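Show me any protein, keeping tokens residue-aligned.
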Amino acid sequence: MTINCKGVLINFNKPKIFGILNITPDSFFDGGKYNTTKKILKQCEKMIVEGADFIDVGAQSSRPGSNELSLDEEKNRLLPNLENLIKEFPDTHFSIDTYRSKIAEESIDIGASIINDISSGNLDSSMMEVVGKKKVPYVMMHMKGIPLTMQVNTVYKNIVNEIIEFFSKKIKQAYSFGIDDLIIDPGFGFGKEITDNYKILNHLELFNIFNLPVMVGISRKSMIYKKLGVNSEQSLNGTSILNTVSLTKKVKILRVHDVKEAKECIDLLQELK
């Protein structure tokens, strides 16, 4: 199982880490933390040193209830910072967290390696065409609705089956646009109740049916801290536990705020092979 990032074949014999770099003022955990060039570069370096395989850069919050940025706002916030990051860390693979094809295209032209789309093309009909043309890997996530309203309609008959059916259609669509390298993300917390998230986690191994890398993004989310009666700042231990569970179900990518701890989960589980 491999993906091609700018001519480099990356295999998943050992699970990989997406380090989250939110350059947003309102993300649920670290919004506003990285609001200067110096802070952004320092956090990126920290995650690389700690073992991140990719840095996932997002300029627009997708937390439940978040409002949509204008195209120009997202572009002005993201692209200059991406240029600085690539200049400072030219050997690092940067993933761009966006659902807009114009942002994706310009990011790839600057040097981004991967597009991470929370909507799997549902919020921009040109996205798959752009990704297919540019020949970069594409992360497709399951989300019901849009971030502003996604927690309003969270009714499923069988959530795992419905997400599998969703990916069956989306994978076929992506291949039709010439996208060769796909990663799937079941979308913990995106249009799902806490009980739904644990149903997905309990049956996570079923998503391996597609023989594609599965990415899990549960880092410091409410499915952890609400269950434990704490807050996101206090949910690192819970995150590590659920990341470990995910790894036992053959997940290939952990998307996390805390790279060092995620790498420890991966390294220790490797010893059990």
